[in-house]
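Journal club side-thread
Mid-discussion, someone asked how the predicted structure for our own chain would compare to the paper's figures. Pasting it here so we can look after the session.
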Amino acid sequence: MMISAQQIRAARAMLNWSQETLAEESGLSLATIYNLEKGHLSPRSLLELRKAFESKGIEFFGRNGVNRRPDDFRQYAGHDGTEEFFADLLSVARDEEREFMAVFPSQEALALALGVEPSGNLGRLEQLGRIAKVRCLLSDIRNSGLFIPCFQFRAIARSPGTPFSVLVYGNKFALITNGDAGLTYLVFDSIKMSRDAYETYSAEWETAVPILAASNNRLVVS
C-alpha cells in the first residue's frame, strides 16, 4: 500500500526523527526525503520508507492513518510470577553485556522482588551478580539489616510514597509493586522505555551517595 506525504510526516513526528535521521534509517538521500514529504512520491522510495518506519513499530492504515504499535508487555504475579521474572532476568543477563539499573526503597525490597525472603539465602542474588553488573538506587537506608555485596548501591532522596520500584534490564523496563495481592511485575519489552529509564537513572546515580557497607544493622554512606 502506498503511503502519503502526510503519513510520512506524521510517522517521523511520532519517532521524533529529523529528515536527516529518516534518510539514514531508510538508506535514501536527504533530497529524496524532502521531495517525498512535499508529495513527489516514488513507489520504490516509499517502500524503503515504509520498511524503516515499520521496523520501529509504526503502522499505517487508510489514506492518512498512522499508529504506533503497543510495546510488548507482560505481567507476572505471585510466587510463580517472581520465579518467572527472576528467570527472565537471568536469561537477559546471559545474553546482554549491559548492566542493570534498579530503583528500590531498600535492599530488603530488592531481595524480596528477586525471590529472597527476609533472612533468606542470598545465593540466587549472587548468581545474578556473577553474570550481570547490578546498580541500585535506594530511597530508604534506615534500619537496614541486610547488605548484598554482589550489587552496587547508592542512596537517593526519594518520596517514601513512591508506589513502585523499577528494574531496567536489557531492552526491558519493569515496574514492581507489592500490594495486598503480593508482588506484581509489569514488564515492557521496549527499547525506548528501557533506554530512557537507563539514561535517567544513570544520571541520578552520578549524584547519589555511595553506600560503603553494613555496620550494626545500618548501611554506611560515604
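Post-session note: The chain has a mean pLDDT of 84.
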